[in-house]
Amino acid sequence: MRNALMHRLTSSKHHNAFPQRRRQVEPFEHLPLVSEGMSCFTFSSFQGLAIYGNLAQMNFLVSYDIENQVVSFKPTQCS
After folding, report:
1. Which residues contact 19 (CB under 8 A, 6 or more apart)?
2. What pLDDT does residue 12 have?
3. 35: Cα separation from own chain's centroid
4. N or C: at which end does the chain have fewer Cβ atoms within 10 angstroms?
5. R_g over Cα of the chain
6. DSSP 5
7. CA distances (Å), 48 to each of 31, 69, 75, in order?
8. What is the pTM of this model?
9. Tens digit of pLDDT per residue, the chain (79 long)?
10. DSSP state of 10
11. Boundaries of every domain in the chain
12. CA pair distance 58, 25, nearest whole angstrom
């Protein structure tokens, strides 16, 4: 994956990396395991375009307000 940000795991302990966030960010949403001891961000950017991957959107109802140019994510149970 081009421009992928990989992270080598040193602990399974939850880390509050985004203390100002509005919602709880679960580690598996943005840093799923891709191999033993290695995780990869589920979002990226390329030439000014931000990509929020399908794994990051799991268990969210996604709303697209085209008129106001807003994308909203509502946590939900999709299973």
Report:
1. none
2. 52
3. 18
4. C
5. 14
6. -
7. 22, 17, 27
8. 0.43
9. 444 455 455 555 544 544 555 555 555 556 666 777 777 766 667 777 777 677 677 778 888 999 998 888 888 887 7
10. S
11. 6-75
12. 12
